[in-house]
Specification:
Distance between the termini: 26 Å
Number of strands: 2
Helix content: 55-70%
Strand order of the largest sheet: 1-2
Structural class: mainly alpha
Radius of gyration: 18 Å
Mean pLDDT: 78
Length: 130
């Protein structure tokens, strides 16, 4: 499965000395995304994000509910793989894997939206490389 944060198919191409290069601003965003999403998400980071959402629940209710849904999917993925495997429900295993990756995919999507100025994301890790 390809990493949506590293998918370069959306790049517009330019011909520069017989090479195809992305526009400079997209290359900078991709570099930042690659640096900041190359590590796995720790439970400490999940807890930090959860605490931020709880602290800002009143003014950002939709974002809080969305994060709760992502965490619910994550737990369902981790809990559901064993019964899916035990009961030979092979069709459910890819769904469990996607659910397990839900927090990483959501953070990646929010980071991309933040870097492209589509959404402001205040809970991103301030120590992550920019």
């Amino acid at each position: 499965m390809s990493d949506p944060c590293r998918d370069h198919s959306h790049w517009r191409t330019r011909k520069t000395t017989n090479q195809l290069k992305p526009p400079a601003h997209e290359a900078a965003i991709t570099t930042r995304l690659t640096r900041s999403t190359s590590k796995t998400i720790s439970l400490t980071e999940l807890q930090r994000i959860k605490k931020w959402h709880v602290a800002h629940r009143a003014e950002r209710a939709v974002e809080y509910q969305l994060w709760e849904a992502v965490l619910t999917l994550w737990v369902l993925g981790w809990v559901g793989w064993l019964p899916a495997f035990a009961f030979d429900a092979w069709w459910a295993l890819p769904l469990c894997v996607i659910a397990m990756a839900a927090p990483a995919l959501y953070i990646c999507w929010r980071r991309l939206a933040h870097l492209t100025n589509l959404l402001r994301c205040e809970w991103l890790d301030p120590t992550a490389p920019r």
